[in-house]
Amino acid sequence: MIAYIKGKVTFIQEESIIIEVAGIGYEIICPNPFIFQSSLQKELFIYTYHHVREDIQCLYGFKDEDEKYLFTKLISVSGIGPKSAITILGSVHVPDFIAAVEREDEKYLTQFPGVGKKTARQIILDLKGKLINIVSLEGDRFENKGQLENSIQLTEAKEALKALGYSDREISGIMPTLQKEEIDETDRMIKKALTLLVKN
């Protein structure tokens, strides 16, 4: 099992980054590759999960251990594969997702592509009570509905931008900035996103 990789980031692609180690380029699929933009042509330490099946081997990369741990828990849920897990992680902060699971918030979970009511229910059944200790949460974290709503609005905005014809690469490039915005309405989130896309 490859637990982590340390090397120079040589390329950033729509769904992955390439890290060169001793002359070998490792392609690592990430939730949001563009968060590593500042590390391009620099050395990076990234946590990895080596996914092996009979027909394929893939490396998945994460910015911290909490993100990696949540990924491993998600793919253990029936109906959630690596692709779905990466999509979820690309749209949320780990504590926000845990808060939703603890609240049994099916509406929040079904905002993600490929997650219907049945899968959302399965996530709650399998993971509730098992994720709280993996991150350092503020005492009132689970009471902060605003941050949960912000994550939902991000997902809704992302889907709206796709419908408008923007590529995953363009959308992923502005996600880190959008995540920092304290916007409480989806329409305003989309308008902000469009402003950022025009600037880029």
UniProtKB/TrEMBL annotation:
Compartment(s) where it occurs, according to its Swiss-Prot or TrEMBL record? Cytoplasm
Q: Can you supply one Gene Ontology CC term for this chain's record?
A: Holliday junction helicase complex
Annotated region described as Flexible linker, given as residue ranges: 136-148
Gene3D superfamilies, per database record? 5' to 3' exonuclease, C-terminal subdomain, Nucleic acid-binding proteins
* Residue ranges, annotated region (Domain III): 149-200
Q: Which GO terms describe its biological process?
A: DNA recombination; DNA repair
Instruction: Report the domain remarks.
Output: Has three domains with a flexible linker between the domains II and III and assumes an 'L' shape. Domain III is highly mobile and contacts RuvB.
Q: Which family does it belong to?
A: Belongs to the RuvA family.
- What is this protein called in UniProt? Holliday junction branch migration complex subunit RuvA
Species assigned in the record: Pseudogracilibacillus auburnensis
